[in-house]
UniProtKB/TrEMBL annotation:
Gene3D superfamilies reported in the protein's UniProt record: 3.30.230.10
Stretch forming the signal peptide: none
UniProt source species: Streptomyces luteireticuli
InterPro entries the UniProt entry points to: Ribosomal_Su5_D2-typ_SF (IPR020568), Ribsml_uS5_D2-typ_fold_subgr (IPR014721)
Annotated segments matching region Disordered: 106-131
Ranges annotated as biased composition (Basic and acidic residues): 113-123
The protein's name in its UniProt record: Lon proteolytic domain-containing protein
Length: 267
């Protein structure tokens, strides 16, 4: 191939070459400059019927607490922090991975907040979620909070998305399936969803990653807010059964039906 020296280039070629220089410089800078994204991946799961860091996740007093079998596992995701530098190479490398999610940083971390303020917000959301889960579960069981005290310990995982699983754990600890058996039927049940004091279940973020985390840790069933069925199905492990829920009552009824061989809703 023959290359002409710049002196032999046409005026149009010279103009194109001059214009290309800043474009290439911009692309080179973008390749190394931090971008406003956060990269998330499947996090840990915790059995709310068991222990965490040497202490029971759920403790009940004022009523006899049942010994349970099976597991009710809440799930989490791990995201790069608000001060982590995420570059073009990171985004390009993780964009098409099914076990990663590239999200706007502001959708994960509130803008203008320090790391401490963000952590405090997450802890506050978890505390509120635990309070709502307790109220929803005791109301479902027709128990008075004046007579039954519930203590929830899971302080190192923030956010409100474990609410549904906390509520189900309280129901299982106190009443099981209502017939002397376990609400889980001895299975490992995963799930996610916020919960309100009236028992309604709301959507959460990172559902595809949470499904993967639960499958990795042995869950054969995953409870998901009904409106997020499509998100969960996108990365559903082959052996996992997906069960949509709208409130605590239908979540309990679905688990009872699963144990008894009854009709269980599907997405």
């Amino acid at each position: 191939m023959r290359f002409l020296p710049p002196s032999a280039w046409s005026p149009r070629t010279r103009i194109a070459a001059v214009c290309a220089v800043p474009v290439l410089a911009l692309l080179g800078t973008a390749a190394f400059a931090p971008l406003p994204f956060s990269i998330a991946r499947p996090g840990s799961t915790v059995n709310v019927l068991g222990d965490h860091q040497g202490k029971p996740v759920i403790s009940v007093s004022g009523v006899e607490s049942r010994r349970t079998s099976g597991q009710l596992r809440m799930s989490s995701i791990i995201a790069t922090g608000p001060r982590a530098e995420v570059g073009l190479a990171d985004v390009a490398g993780d964009w098409f991975r099914t076990d990663r999610a590239v999200m706007p940083r502001d959708s994960v971390f509130p803008p203008g907040k320090s790391d401490k303020e963000t952590e405090e917000r997450n802890v506050a959301e978890m505390t509120k979620s635990q309070e709502s889960a307790t109220r929803a579960a005791l109301d479902y069981l027709h128990r008075s909070p004046k007579d039954v005290k519930v203590t929830l310990r899971l302080a190192d995982i923030g956010g409100p998305s474990a609410g549904l699983m906390f509520a189900l754990g309280i129901v299982d600890k106190i009443d099981g399936d209502g017939r002397g058996g376990d609400l889980t039927g001895g299975r490992t049940i995963g799930g996610t969803g916020t919960i309100e004091p009236d028992g309604s279940v709301g959507p959460v973020g990172g559902v595809p990653l949470k499904v993967q985390a639960e499958g990795r840790d042995g869950a054969g069933v995953f409870l998901v807010p009904k409106k997020q069925c499509a998100e969960a199905e996108a990365e559903l492990p082959k052996a996992m059964r997906l069960v949509p829920v709208t409130d605590l009552r239908d979540a309990v009824e679905s688990l009872k039906a699963l144990s008894s061989g009854g009709r269980v809703p599907s997405c």
